[in-house]
TrEMBL record:
Cross-referenced SMART domains: C2
Taxon lineage: Eukaryota, Metazoa, Ecdysozoa, Arthropoda, Hexapoda
Domain C2: 86-207, 214-334
GO biological process, one term: vesicle fusion
GO cellular component: axon; exocytic vesicle; plasma membrane; presynapse
SUPFAM superfamilies the UniProt entry points to: C2 domain (Calcium/lipid-binding domain, CaLB)
Protein name, entry field: C2 domain-containing protein
Annotated keywords: Membrane, Repeat, Transmembrane, Transmembrane helix
Species per Swiss-Prot/TrEMBL record: Coptotermes formosanus
Length: 363
């Protein structure tokens, strides 16, 4: 038999076998789809609807047929899905000695810190440890080079802290990324009110880092005497935005009091040169009728002085009983009203925008 005859014989046989196999697999596939439909289960993909969050493992799940609203029957693997906080976490331990009035803070480690530098992979983190609102004592860890999973294992001790004072403090752990050329970048912070912590036992924490203030903090006091006198004291600011080429600012504070049926009254502090944490200690008095104080508002604007161009806005807040720019601003004003002739002191976080509705900004 010649080769051509063999080829003519083999081709029909090959086609026949292929056809039989295709029919077989098609039948099996149809039966599997039918059994799944009879069981009332359909496979649904969530890849398109699930947000693209780093460090999230997206797994398939099965949902009951005709139930596409709320209830979904997850596979066991989905129950273990974890969403990592985008700014990472920090681990630390607190131990208080009541007899010696000492608080020890062990800064252990952080994990999954984000990249803040221009060059991929660079992160040189360190931590500032501070007790608020005093800020009298603060400690700094060492810088850990080129890591998003730093380990510090450094202990810091705050002394002269009787339990009564300790329960009025807030522990701040602020993580920064060190930069040799420009200002260090803020990665995030943890604020832990110590009155919420059982200090009788050693406590360990692993907390997510949250964005810190972008504009800085301002310490102020308010005192209203029912004889129509409001005293506002601008004490100091902390960690203001750097507005100048030398990574510093020349800050001053403008105040504007608005009362019903009265023109706005304005005041201004002195300029403190070349600092991001200025001390002002300046008091200002306003005449406000007792019948109008509840409806009044006080806008505080922190500016950066410029010799050549226009002064730049650093941040602002609005103190008022109804239209305050935030919870702390409203609380401060209400505390002043509830405690006449008593000076009420409070820290405030500056904001980019703090105007009440229908009211013009300070110029």
């Amino acid at each position: 038999m010649e080769v051509s005859d063999l080829l003519l014989t083999a081709i029909p046989i090959t086609l026949g076998v292929t056809l039989i196999l295709c029919c077989y697999f098609h039948k099996c596939s149809s039966s599997r789809k039918k059994s799944a439909a009879e069981a009332g289960i359909v496979t649904v993909s969530i890849l398109e609807s699930f947000p693209m969050v780093p460090n999230v493992r997206v797994l398939p799940y099965v949902a009951e047929k005709h139930n596409t609203t709320q209830q979904q029957q997850l596979l066991p693997e989905v129950a273990t899905l974890q969403v990592e906080h985008p700014r990472g976490h920090i681990s630390f331990t607190l131990k208080y000695n009541a007899q010696e009035s000492k608080l020890k803070v062990l800064v252990q480690s952080a994990r999954n810190l984000p990249m803040t530098d221009f060059f991929p992979g660079n992160c040189d983190p360190y931590v500032w440890v501070t007790l608020l609102p005093d800020r009298k004592h603060r400690f700094k860890t060492k810088v850990r080079k080129n890591t998003h999973q730093p380990h510090w294992c450094e202990t810091f001790c705050f002394e002269d802290l009787p339990i009564e004072k300790l329960q009025t403090q807030v522990l701040q752990l602020h993580v920064f990324d060190y930069d040799r050329i420009t200002r260090d970048d803020s990665i995030g912070e943890v604020l832990l009110p110590l009155w919420q912590v059982d200090m009788l036992e050693k406590q360990s924490f692993c907390e997510p880092l949250k964005p810190a203030s972008e504009y800085g903090d301002l310490l102020m006091s308010l005192c209203y005497v029912p004889s129509d006198k409001l005293t506002v004291t601008v004490l100091k600011a902390w960690d203001l935005r750097s507005m100048d080429i030398n990574l510093k600012s020349d800050p001053y504070v403008k105040l504007c009091l608005r009362s019903p049926e009265k023109r706005a009254e304005k005041r201004k502090t002195k300029i403190v040169k070349c600092t991001l944490s200025p001390v002002f200690n300046e008091a200002f008095s306003f005449n406000v009728a007792n019948t109008n104080i509840e409806e009044s508002s006080l806008e505080i604007v922190v500016m950066d002085f410029d010799n050549i161009g226009r002064d730049e806005l650093i941040g602002r807040i609005m103190l008022a009983g109804r239209d305050g720019s935030g919870e702390s601003e409203t609380k401060h004003w209400l505390e002043m009203l509830a405690n006449p002739s008593i000076t009420v002191v409070q820290w405030h976080r500056l904001k980019a925008e703090a105007r009440s509705r229908g009211k013009k900004a300070v110029h």
